[in-house]
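Hi, here's the filled form for the chain we discussed.

Project: internal
Contact: R.S.
Residues: 128
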Amino acid sequence: MANRKASPLGEFIRRNREISEYSMRQFAELAGISNPYLSQIERGLREPSEQVVQSIADALKVSAETLYEQAGVTPNGDEGSETLAAIKEDPRLTPRQRRAMLEIYQSFTGISTTPRRRRPNSADAASE
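And the returned structure, exactly as it came back:
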């Protein structure tokens, strides 16, 4: 098998998991994904869906946007939108409420609030 370099997102997840002193098995359980799938994400063999990234972000106690930013993935749409920034930064909102508000805002405005990512292949979707 070819030796692939880990993705920036996978590297960030692994580094923060280790800083938090979680084993891969413990962290996978906390994030609600399988241990082998987490390993593949960390090694850059799989790209997680937005839902999986959100679960990992919740487990790391950071926002999904932080994960994407640390991985060097830029968001789509109007980055300067004051409304988007207010929703993303409001400390009174839980991660779930924040996602819901961003989805509602997107449905009304058509402004994408999700990061631009490579399109996963069908094998990725099957393994989630």
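Let me know if anything looks off before we file it.
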